[in-house]
Each structure stands twice: as C-alpha cells, then as structure tokens.
Amino acid sequence: MTQQSGSSLRETAEDCFRRGDLPGCLRSLQDSVRQSPADAKLRIFLAQVLMVQGDWGRALNQLKVIGEMEASALPMMHAYSAAIQCERLRAEVFAGTRSPLLFGEPLPWIALQMQSVALLGSGREAEAAELRAQAFEAAPATAGTLNGEPFEWIADADSRLGPMLEVLLNEAYYWIPFERIASIRVEPPSDARDLVWLPAEFRWSNGGEAMGLIPVRYPGSESSDDAAIRLARKTEWRSIGPDAYQGLGQRILTTDGPEVGLLELRELQLQPAS
C-alpha cells in the first residue's frame, strides 16, 4: 500500500472534517503527526478536533506539546487549556454538583435559576420547574437589536439558562444576565475550536469591556453520537417540563423577533432596563 504524504493526509483530514467524518479526520491527523511530529500546525489542528470530540485529556496533552514547540502559541495554549478546565466545571454545574461564578450582584432571581439547574441535575424535574418559573417571572426583560433586528426581550432558548449567558472570562466560567451586557461583537468562526468556544468582545452595562469565549454547544453535546451535534451544525431539544426545553448542539438565542444560532451572531446590542 502506498503511504500518503503529510500534505495529502492533512487534505484528507480537512475533507473528513468538512464532511463531518470526525473519526476519519482524527485518523488522518494522527497519521500526519506521526509522519511530521515537529509540525505545530498539524498538532494545533489535532488539538482542535479533540476539543470538538470532547476528548479533553488528549487535547490538553497536545496543547502542552504545542506550547513547548512554539513560543508564539503559548497564549493560545493557555487560553484553551483554561477553557477545557472550565468545560469540566461546566459539566459539574449542570449535573448539580457545582456552581458557576456570577457577574455582578447575585440577585434573588439568579439564585432561583441556579437552584433550578441544580435540582434538574439531580433529577428533581418538578421542583426545578417551579423554581425556574419563579426566576423567569422575576427576571427583567432586556430589549435591543440582534444582528440589527430589534426585539423587546432576549433569552437563551435552553430553559436551564433563559435570561443568562454562559461566558468564559479571565480563565473562569461565568453566568452573566443579559441585563448586565451592553453589547457583544463576534467574528465569523474561522477555526475548528470556534465550534466549541466562540471568541467575543463584550461591553458591559457598567461601561467596562472584556474579551471572552462563549460556549457554542450546550452541555453534553461533545458526547453525542451525532457528529452534526458535536460540530454545532444543528440543535436538538428535550422537554424538561411545561414549555421548557434543554438543548444539544449549537446554542440558540431567541427573542420576540429574530432567533439565531450563536455561530450566526455578529452583533448584539442591549438596552438594560433602567
């Protein structure tokens, strides 16, 4: 059998990725890395595909090697190593065993929402639904524009989150109420890792600014048997109570007007209630 060249293997990997064949992509990348172990770009691609697969341990190992090979890659290595650790914490939050950090004052409705998620994670759906309803009733509506289209209220379509947005800031995992955000700007995804965490520029309602990452997929998506879910190419919903749903796949932002997947978001302008 004729051995494929390194460039041919990379092209095969890229083609497999486009087609959603993640196992084929990984095989080609692993063969490429064995042929060219000092090629940092190959290892970066491999690390990103491992992130899409949710193979956090192997992704961390590749990031460590990349950081040792390329000093210029150290900022990326640190940022995404921290993102992986946040992802592990995130799974525990939705399992009901840990709590996220909160941005700003922990208002009563936010505490109710967090308690609802913890109850749902422990299998207490009815109690979770009751607290969630109380939280949503008390949460303020935040108006604004989504990619230029106006709305009177916005929420994550996943009922576990609703008026909250998950954000990775300063290497930590936060829940941030939409009312505390003035704007979000994002660029179109350009790398495989952007299908896991989308870089975003935030301006806060208090005037501050920050760069952060928004988890693109709902918790557990990386474990789905469906590659389209792992690649954030679709969203599936499961009922968790009356008019309440939790998602797998790409995050959806819903309003009384437009509704978009996170990867379609370019600019969100918000007008917090005074």
Summarize the entry for a quick read.
This protein has 274 residues and is an alpha+beta fold. It is built from eight helices and 14 strands.
- Cα distance spanning the termini: 70 Å
Structural class: alpha+beta
Shape designation: globular
Helix % is 25-40%
Strand order, main sheet: write it out: 3-2-14-7-8-9
Can you count the helices?
8
Tell me the series of helices and strands, N- to C-terminal. HHHHHEHHEEEEEEEEHEEEEE
Largest sheet: 6 strands, antiparallel
Query: How many independent structural domains?
Result: 2
Which regions are unreliable across 5 or more consecutive residues at pLDDT < 50? none
Task: Give me the count of strands.
Answer: 14
Roughly what is the average pLDDT, rounded to an integer? 95
Over all CA atoms, what is the radius of gyration? 20 Å
Q: What percent of residues are in strands?
A: 15-25%
